[in-house]
Amino acid sequence: MTAPEPAPLPSDDSFEELYEHGPVGQLSMTLEGAIIRVNATLLRWTGYTADQLRGARFPDLLDAGGRLFYETRFLPVLRLRGEAREVALSLETASGVRLPVIINSVLVTNQDGSPRLLRTAVLDATERQDYERQLVLARRSSEGTEGRLRVLQDASIEFARSGTEDSLTAALAAKARGALAAAGASVLLLDESGALRLAAGTDPLASAGEHRMLRPETEALSSGSVVTIASIADAAARYPELVDVLLEARVEALCVTPMLDEHGQPMGLVMCRLGRARSSTPPRSSCRRPWLSRGARSSRACACSGASSGWPCTTSSRDSPTASSSTSGWARRSRPRTAPGARLR
Amino acid sequence: MYPGRMRPPGPSPLLSRGAPVSLNARRPRPDLFSGAPISLLPSAVDDVRRRNNVTESGPATAQPMLFAHGFGCSQEMWRTVTPHFEDDHRVILFDAVGAGRSDLTAYDAGKYDSLDGYADDVLGIVEALDLHDVVFVGHSVSAMVGVLAANRAPERFAALILVGPSPRYIDEPGYTGGFSQTDIDGLLDALDANYLGWSSTMAPVIVGNADRPELGEELTSSFCSTDPAIASQFARVTFLSDNRRDLAAVTTPTLVLQCSEDPIAPLPVGHYVHEHIPGSLLVVLRATGHCPNMSDPDELAREIRSFLA
Q: Where in this chain does the record put each PAS domain (chain A) (predicted)?
């Protein structure tokens, strides 16, 4: 029995053909990003001529976000490690449409080890990018939800664990600070005279325990709603007298959340001081459930973490009083005898 | 991702890769602010060293030079610069918390939501190592961190070397920072998109045993890796902060080193920094790009030396 003669394999021996027309874009550039050589496949994908690209700067083909990424993360890795793999970017084509790509790059060195040029393989990632974008959006959304739940969960656990007013207010200050990524947070309680006293956290405006009440605090107490200052510019427009106070304390944004008792009367504030401006005003109230836990039943201050803006979602003031008629909670004890909300109005 | 994100309870996601775990991340840390004077507590000093992965070279009694890396990488960025100074300076390098081989458990989203938190750490290092007469060399965002630190403790700093500084990346009427809010959102998207596919290049790797040479490659790859949530917040803090008003308060002698074609901190920004820091000197480098510490370390070192001379 003789084996049939195998058919001769076709040849693929032209390196030029492989380089120019292979199924991958090829690009060589200087370390400064000037394009030296491009293959035919990449020209076909992008619609440029070789003359248009030769000498052009590769980072100029990226969008601004990609350029930032390229300069701050991609290039340093390439220089330190000699290669960077599977980096997602998008290139501007001749028609102005963006081409999503995945690139692999290597650093080519001279014999003495000094860097000579960069070689980059480019893959068209159009299909993949749509899918990945959806993944990213889904992940951001789930992280937002997860983050909010976690804050609530952590808070309930902490509050349930807190046996004393001190530990409860300390937990509240810590949780509010964490939820907002705030530089500092304080819990301030109204005393009988209607003054705010520091119960937990840190307060640059307190002296001898008494908090110097400014307009955001007054407004939060009288309205029962959250008062926020998004930036120094926002403060300059709405609370010009506060600008110097904020700058002095190196605070760029502020979130003042009133705590109301079961009758809707203010008993204090949670005050978060943020070290960096937030981009916009916070989203209003998607979180209407008060923290239900021992000791905190009457408090409806709800600071859960906002999604991308970095603000809390907030309970608006007086909806749905909680079912509790507990008299043992800290809230009852710290509630002023008179109703400062009425006075402040 | 959003600034309020906190690490979920349980082991760090970085530790779930099966790699050996750095001892750095495991030791319980004493509270620095419990009231005792920091400089008298050896454990607190160790703590700062560990938190920021502080490394030192050069004679211990020489004038200290503190090098701070920028957004996107780690102290490794100074690899080819520091040899120029090790003969006659105490060279101190560190990783910002969240970057390189810093202690990720020390990351606090509230503290590091502004550059002040990073300046706290710089002053913590200065304090813990009992540094005086410090030459601070800060690249990119860390240039502004140095400004904040020097403004708070000017008596500790002899010179500020700001490499590619920008007090504000976003354009405003009357100010050219080089970027719009949309551009920065694009960077955040790029960061996100690249964490999906980053298996080898930039994925975080924690390696505990540097004595095993077969781990060398992993070690290298960890230099520029960052936890994705931290990278995202650091990007926001870096590119959305506005520290222009801090420039005028600088009293430390300052050298502004500006690259000739810097796509991150363009020339007008270098001029702005120079014009707003009283008495500062501006030198425009031949080096292009945003990282002269990597593209032309010799020129960078030469200019620093000539300023210090």
A: 31-127
